[in-house]
Design a protein that fits this description.
This protein has about 160 residues and is α+β, with helices and mostly antiparallel strands. The chain contains three helices and eight strands. The strands form three sheets. It has a three-stranded mixed beta sheet, with no helix packed on it. It has a three-stranded antiparallel beta sheet with strand order 3-4-5. The protein is extended.
Length: about 160
């Protein structure tokens, strides 16, 4: 198993240091649904798929409520979820208007990690991952704009 990537050239002229350079971008070749995840969990434990699915559906509901109440949700062994905001800047505190200046709400996720012997953070979901260039035509189609996928291109540089 390997994380597949494709090379993409940065064509954002506003980022002069990165403009024209090529960067690896992760490629997704499949998408699992909640049903698929429940089926896989059923194969690895004594619970029925329907029971696993019910628990996962309830997890989504509880997490939604807690995140929208400004609570972070830490799932031991997995990671921490919290809400984040995108906002426009205002020159002064008095000029800030939440209705006008808060542009969006999104969820941030940080996988659980531990410090290794070299004192570097080792993340649970990425430990042991390797990368490999994706073969042609193995990519999921790009989501349509109305599917609501958040853009995550902060800086277009070597983010990991």
């Amino acid at each position: 198993m390997a994380v597949l990537y494709r090379l993409t050239q940065n064509m954002n002229k506003k980022n002069t240091k990165a403009y024209g350079k090529w960067y690896a971008r992760a490629v997704m070749t499949n998408q699992l649904t909640l049903n698929d995840v429940a089926q896989r969990i059923q194969q690895n434990c004594s619970m029925k798929r329907s029971d696993v699915k019910a628990v996962l559906e309830e997890l989504v509901e509880v997490m939604t409520q807690e995140l929208q109440n400004s609570h972070s949700v830490r799932l031991d062994g997995f990671g921490t979820f919290r809400m984040g905001l995108t906002s426009a800047g205002s020159v002064t505190v008095r000029e800030f208007n939440a209705a006008k200046d808060v542009l969006g709400v999104h969820v941030c996720f940080v996988p659980e990690g531990k410090r290794g012997v070299d004192k570097k953070m080792v993340r649970v979901l990425t430990t042991g991952a390797s990368v490999k260039e994706a073969p042609k035509n193995t990519v999921l189609p790009e989501p349509k704009e109305d599917e609501g996928e958040d853009s995550d291109n902060e800086g277009e540089g070597g983010q990991g």
